[in-house]
Amino acid sequence: MMRMVRSVLALLFAAAVLYGMQHTRPLYSDITSPIVSSGGMNKRVEARAFALSLDSARVARVLNVETFGKSKTYTSSGVWVVVEGEAEAKFETLGLTSGEWLSASGVRYVLTDRVPATIEMMPGNAYQPGLPRRILLVFEVPEDAVAGGTVVVARTKLLPLDDEIRIATNVSGKDIEPAIAIRRNQEGPPWTVLPQR
After folding, report:
1. pLDDT tens-place string over residues 35-66
2. What is the DSSP track for 54-68?
3. Quick one: which of 96, 90, 94 has its CA closest to 154?
4. 0.90 cut: is pTM over it?
């Protein structure tokens, strides 16, 4: 009789351990998720392969883009978020192809593809070790996704266990400008965001 009780207790204990392991183990997506480095505006955030700093994040209802003497106006049912900063590769030439706006509620918005590539926005540039390069990221997001937003930049979304930098912005939903313009420059920095602050 005692032997049967021990067997039943051992079986119940094993079942409890297996149940606990099943419900506490990480998901496959957690195991292969990117390696995140986090920081704030105006600070250099370093990952293994690249570094990133963001110095300006502006929100506007209308976006004007001026290239080669032509101007085009972009409207949106939401708002435009224009982020400027600097990126640098650390060890080898690389491209940064993934940029997202992560709202406070966890919804992700990818870089817009409506603005012409002549502005030299990210993605599209090659970054060299020891040579910081200006970056421009433009997002089209709903107005309620602005406050508490975070910029997420990675080499690509297709490589698991790769670097990802997250920078919390200091924009709020109250700092929305009526319009801003991005002007392509012939010399100096590749673009200027107007009006200047």
Report:
1. 899 999 999 999 999 999 999 999 999 999 88
2. EEEEEEEEEEEEEET
3. 96
4. no
